[in-house]
């Protein structure tokens, strides 16, 4: 017998809540040489990969070293606003702005618990920034980045 309804009848599936927990396993990434600023290759066409804590450290350095909004391939949350930080009036204001933008850049990753213990070393054309990253699933580690003054 044919159903003679004027309007279609649709079964509505039950709503399932999404799991709010973030995937704690850090996915493998391509290895990156922080000193050379280039991929680590075993041969011309074979890049090595990094995993876990090492991949997270690389992400931290790249997030701090990438100017926010400068790469269309990255989400707007990725990167730091170092150009604005370096435009401050005096060295103390620059240091505070650098601290703020590094913390903002790294706290977008749910694996970052906090960023602390900033140390600055000034030279005429560069600023060396050393800081400690406290990760949720790993031990704390120190990172150092070099920022060019304009």
Describe the structure in your own words:
- The protein is built from 3 helices and 9 strands.
- The protein has one domain (29-148): Nuclear Transport Factor 2, Chain: A.
- It has helices spanning 52-65, 82-86, 91-107, and strands spanning 29-30, 32-33, 38-39, 41-43, 46-47, 49-50, 112-122, 126-135, 141-148.
- Strand 7 and strand 8 (126-135) form a beta hairpin.
Top keywords for this entry?
single chain, 150 residues, alpha+beta, Nuclear Transport Factor 2, Chain: A
Summarize the structure.
This protein is of the alpha+beta class and 150 residues long. It has three helices and nine strands, in the order E-E-E-E-E-E-H-H-H-E-E-E.
Task: Describe how the helices and strands are arranged.
Elements: E1 29-30, E2 32-33, E3 38-39, E4 41-43, E5 46-47, E6 49-50, H1 52-65, H2 82-86, H3 91-107, E7 112-122, E8 126-135, E9 141-148
Antiparallel strand pairs: 1-6, 2-3, 4-5, 7-8, 8-9
InterPro entries: Sheath_initiator
Organism: Blautia wexlerae
Protein name: Protein of uncharacterized function (DUF2634)
């Amino acid at each position: 017998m044919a159903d003679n309804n004027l309007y279609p009848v649709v079964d509505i599936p039950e709503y399932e809540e999404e799991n709010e927990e973030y995937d704690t396993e850090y996915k493998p990434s391509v290895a990156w040489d922080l000193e050379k600023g280039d991929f680590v290759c075993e041969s011309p066409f074979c890049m090595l990969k990094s995993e876990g804590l090492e991949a997270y450290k690389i992400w931290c350095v790249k997030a701090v070293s990438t100017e926010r909004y400068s790469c269309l391939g990255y989400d707007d949350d990725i990167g730091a606003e170092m150009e604005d930080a370096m435009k401050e009036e005096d060295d103390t204001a620059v240091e505070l702005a650098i601290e703020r933008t590094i913390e903002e850049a790294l706290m977008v990753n749910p694996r970052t618990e906090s960023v602390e213990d900033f140390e600055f070393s000034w030279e005429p054309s560069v600023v060396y920034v050393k800081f400690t990253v406290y990760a949720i699933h790993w031990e704390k580690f120190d990172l150092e980045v070099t920022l060019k003054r304009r």
